[in-house]
Amino acid sequence: MSKKIRTRFAPSPTGPLHMGGVRTALYCYLFAKKNQGDFILRIEDTDQTRFVPGAEQYIVDTLKWCGIEPNEGFEFGGNYGPYRQSERKAMYRKYAEELIEKGHAYYVFTSDDNWPTVKEELIKQGNPSPKYDNVTRQYLKNSLTLPADEVQKRLEAGEEYAIRYKMPRNEEVRFEDKIRSWVSFNTNQLDDKVLLKSDGMPTYHLANVVDDHLMEITDVVRGEEWLPSTPLHVKLYESFGWEMPSFSHLPLILKPDGKGKLSKRDGDRLGFPVFPLNWTDPETGEQSQGYRERGFLPDAFVNMLALLGWNPGTEQEIFTLEELVEAFSLERVGKSGARFDFEKTKWFNQQYIKSKSNEELALLTKEDFEKHKYEASVEKLAIICDLIKERATFLHEFPSLGYYFFEDVREYDTKNLVKKWDGTKEPFFMDLINSLNSLETFSAEEIETCVKTKMEAAGLGFGQVLPILRISITGTMQGPPVFSVMSLLGKSICSDRLHKGITLAKSL
RNA sequence: GCUCCGUUCGUCUAUCGGUUAGGACCUCAGGUUUUCAUCCUGGAAAGAGGGGUUCGAUUCCCCUACGGAGUACCA
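The joint structure predicted for all components is written out below.
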């Protein structure tokens, strides 16, 4: 019996969760669920200077909206807490010191740490990125170069210090990435990363390894930007003597045009959201629109994200969350970055809107209708949704697509009305109105047969009658079948609008 | 600069040495629909370049080019 699979999503609360982050969370979730495992949310807030109020709640809200709720974690409970690293602060120093005892790390006292100045000097000399590494540390002031008794004295005096990892020289570090297969680095390229900062907080590197171990994480699924620091994490596991999790580094989501990864700027520039939910920056008050508020269904958003970088190897494109869980595997995640395509994203949403039942849509859009002061029962809304859903890409389009069910025609397509109208048709339409008024049930079928018989009797064709009818009723040549619209509108409104339409036609 | 990762239609991608290189978005042309949308049919559209290995490479290896990420007491 192998260990239970446990994955974690570990964002830092520095702002709204980017859609790339959501995708990482989604893949973590899918992988865990696929293997009957647990999905955990851990907040990585070890850099307290970058904390943004509201960001943690945003993460929680996003996961909930997407339907990928953690089994345990921040705000979700569990036995491995606390799940916020700032609340775990006290425990990290012990682990850093364990490394020092084992000879894998060393102290750097803040008071005489000459690295910042040395580094600046090296940059001036043309070294693009000087490293605090196994060579330079010999010439820098730290517990390796200071006399042992002095180090001891300073420690006892309570001097402030940071702890750095002592990266060994010329060692090959290999690890297997589930997406990229074997990756190797030489430690000579690596530097002595800070493990514990002088404020007592761990850096990501220490915290992530310690917490993943303590939380019994079996599979680390994270963004590609972590690939270069993975050898350090591997060395850390080795130094502690801990079992290593598997690693999977996800490719980036790229901007639709040009170069580089997708950023908030691209969304503003090209007119699409990059965040799942609305976000107001607490500092600047700047607003960013979310997918939810833009009228996207969470399942469509999730489906799109899932296929951006992963594919099942079949031609299926529409997946429920359950189906995604069933079909998912990390091995089928692509290696290269995927350019984001908003057109395709819209297509997904359209597919999901079409596939929803009329009742679901009614419930989903009720609020949008009410925002426009359009009140109707869910039953009636369902009928309206049925008529317009194939014409909608976004949820919020429903009210405008069906506004004429709630208020008078705002704007007439006079161009087409003029084209189709001539005075000789007036008697026909007056007669038609009378006949319609005498109809029993005013059902779509009944209206249609009525119009047809009248038309035939008068020797008129669809093309001569329908456009006028349609424009009178809805103002436009576009839209759902007129007879259904008329039926829903009812006899008296139709009669009124027809009269109005004819009057308008005559005046043009 | 250095390290690592990557490279199939405009975009997302399938292909695990032999295919007319398949699908989807977009796009174009038809058809259904009184209109629009939906839907259906069809078209256009791809293996970065150069070397190998092989009877045979999109597929395996190397080089080049290009792209990306990292290079903080940020995550």
